[in-house]
Amino acid sequence: GMLIAYFPKEKIVVQADMFNAGAPANPNTRAFYQTLKKLKLDVNTIVPIHGTPAPMSALETAMSGAK
Fold first, then answer.
1. Residue 23: what pLDDT?
2. What are the pLDDT digits (tens) for 34-67?
3. Tell me, what's the pLDDT at 44?
4. 39-54 as b/e, with b when 16 or more CB fall inside 10 Å?
5. What are phi and psi of 65, to 5 degrees?
6. Which residues pair with 4 in a beta bridge?
7. Own/partner pairs for 51-60, CB < 8 Å, 24+ apart?
8. pTM of this prediction?
9. H/E stretch holding 11
10. Choosing a second label site near 51 at 20 to 30 A (CA), which of 15, 23, 32, 37?
11. What is the CA angle 52-58-62, rounded to 5?
12. Which residues pair with 54 in a beta bridge?
């Protein structure tokens, strides 16, 4: 399962261990990305529980390089 918190006014999504900027994409990263797209969430910033906040573009870059 996946637990995220979305703050639409701030365009922030908080998640745990699904994506950390600079880390290679993995199955969790792909599932997280697909969930954001499926739910059509308007996200500017991704805030990990363990890590540094990153812009949505960092996740898109990770996914574009994923095999």
1. 86
2. 999 999 999 999 999 988 999 999 999 999 876 5
3. 98
4. eeeebeebebeebeeb
5. -95, -5
6. 15
7. 51/20, 51/21, 52/20, 52/21, 54/19, 54/20, 54/21, 58/21, 58/22, 59/19, 59/21, 59/29, 59/32, 59/33, 60/33
8. 0.90
9. none
10. 37
11. 115
12. 46
Q: Among 47, 34, 38, which Cα is nearest to 7's?
A: 47
Task: Quickly count: other Cβ atoms within 10 Å of residue 63's Cβ.
Answer: 16
- Contacts for 2 with CB less than 8 Å, ≥ 6 apart: 15, 18, 31, 32, 35
Q: How long is the chain?
A: 67
Residue 17 has φ and ψ, to the nearest 5°, of 65, 20
Residue type, 66: A
Residue 58 identity: A
DSSP 65: T
